[in-house]
């Protein structure tokens, strides 16, 4: 059985363990690279967990982290979904849906009217999951990827 745990700033070690596992397993799915996180040390991890108003969730099976997601306040009425990852052996079992819904519920309760995210173009499994959960491609241009040419795709869905 997999349970979802809302983390506090004091849980940064669990967040670090899970995030490093995600970046190692699926480097193609994230703009950030594993090497980016090895340089900052403890303070970088603590700062990430201390973003005011953020909502950080890790999925655990027993004590083993098997998924993660973040909700971050955005501009105005929009919040952002970030860092979604599910361990490969659990993909297709609904855990991604549960993690997305956890952030959507947090967003609604926090008074946001829209939830947006950025995804790497060509990540068809993620795009399929997001479309199934009601996201559509926005007109907003995403950030440039490390290659300096390709941009992330921005997707959005209403929360009301």
From TrEMBL:
One of its GO terms (molecular function) is acyltransferase activity, transferring groups other than amino-acyl groups. Gene3D superfamilies: 3.40.630.30. Keywords: Acyltransferase, Transferase. CDD domains: NAT_SF. It comes from Streptomyces alkaliterrae. PROSITE patterns: GNAT (PS51186). It comes from the Bacteria. Residues 2-160 form the N-acetyltransferase domain. This is GNAT family N-acetyltransferase.
